[in-house]
From TrEMBL:
Belongs to the bacterial solute-binding protein 8 family. This is Iron complex transport system substrate-binding protein. It comes from the Bacteria. Residues 1-28 form the signal peptide. It is found in: Cell envelope. Keywords: Signal, Transport. Pfam families: Peripla_BP_2.
Length: 317
């Protein structure tokens, strides 16, 4: 995910200013009461004075929304989804928590008007790579910003977010649940003699096969004690159709898929169907190509747990 400059429209800026003006007309007693019900925390950008008990939180990206849900924080009535074939919230999110919540497209272009219309009382913004975004969102509601896409383990950021919102217990509940699942799958892999499998996070794009460790897949692979293909080291590898023999040694691959608007998920590797180097690879011959939703690659609680379940099904069923 890359940073893209975004511009708030003049109309939305005017609406935000009007909202701030109206809020400024509250009585002194109401202001004093509100102040006593806030907490001051420090984000990666600035000090934030936000509600102690948010009632209408909004996540700037779907990963932020998932963190809010997992921490049990009440949601604003509208929440973001990304474009690229998605018309609703990721299927692996807690659907019960999303009942009555309306999705709006907020990536790759930011929809400030929809954010303002949602009337959030706090915003969780994990897109801290965009240096101008925090200021724009802070004109709408108190905003806690962090960079969830800096290449670090997202769970470290999740813990910091949980501490900021006073939800460390909920964070630990998820961590314990995830670790228990890891321990169970790891034990069963060992019993099945599959502890030494070599996994390749592989995708096909613009006539090249890429192998890389971006996002959650390699976190799960390493948590399970499996081996990551050395082709994924560093910046990863990009292979042409004539270099596919380098994929030998991989026992199974995992690859992203983006749902089409009609629900179909085309085979990303279909263009390689007549490539003998490809069809002769053991993981192709043994049908060890396993897909997962693109949204799982970006670090969030439900995404990583769902990806762990994908590994469980792929390697142990």
């Amino acid at each position: 995910m890359t940073s893209r400059p975004k511009t708030m429209s003049a109309a939305v800026a005017a609406l935000a200013s009007a909202a701030l003006l109206i809020s400024g007309c509250a009585t002194t007693d109401a202001s004093a009461s509100a102040k006593s019900e806030t907490r001051t925390v420090t984000s990666e950008v600035k000090e934030v004075n936000m509600p102690a008990e948010p009632k209408k939180a909004l996540g700037m990206y779907t990963t932020d929304l998932d963190m809010l849900i997992t921490l049990g924080i009440p949601l604003a009535s509208q929440q973001p989804i990304r474009d690229s074939g998605y018309t609703g919230f990721p299927s692996f999110f807690d659907q019960e928590a999303l009942k009555g919540i309306t999705p709006f497209t907020n990536y790759p272009e930011f929809n400030f008007e929809a954010i303002l219309k949602a009337q959030p009382d706090v915003i969780l913004n994990g897109l801290g790579y965009d240096k101008e975004l925090d200021g724009k969102l802070s004109d709408i509601a108190p905003t806690y910003t962090f960079n969830g896409f800096d290449g670090s383990d997202w769970r470290t950021k999740f813990k910091t977010v949980a501490e900021a919102f006073g939800k460390t217990e909920q964070y630990q509940v998820w961590m314990d649940k995830y670790q228990a699942k890891v321990d169970d799958v790891k034990k069963r892999l060992a019993a099945a003699g599959k502890s030494d499998l070599v996994i390749g996070p592989v995708d096909y794009y613009e006539d090249q096969v890429s192998v890389s460790c971006y996002g959650t897949p390699c976190l799960v692979i390493k948590d399970l004690g499996l081996k990551v293909s050395p082709l994924a080291d560093g910046e990863g590898s990009k292979l042409s159709a004539e270099q596919l023999e380098q994929l030998n040694g991989i026992d199974a691959i995992i690859t992203t898929e983006v749902p089409e608007k009609d629900g179909a998920n085309p085979d990303a590797f279909a263009p390689l169907a007549n490539n003998k180097l490809w069809t002769s690879l053991p993981f192709v011959a043994n049908k060890q190509i396993h897909t997962y939703d693109l949204e799982m690659i970006y670090g969030s609680p439900s995404g990583q747990y769902a990806l762990l379940e994908k590994f469980e099904k792929a390697l142990l069923s």
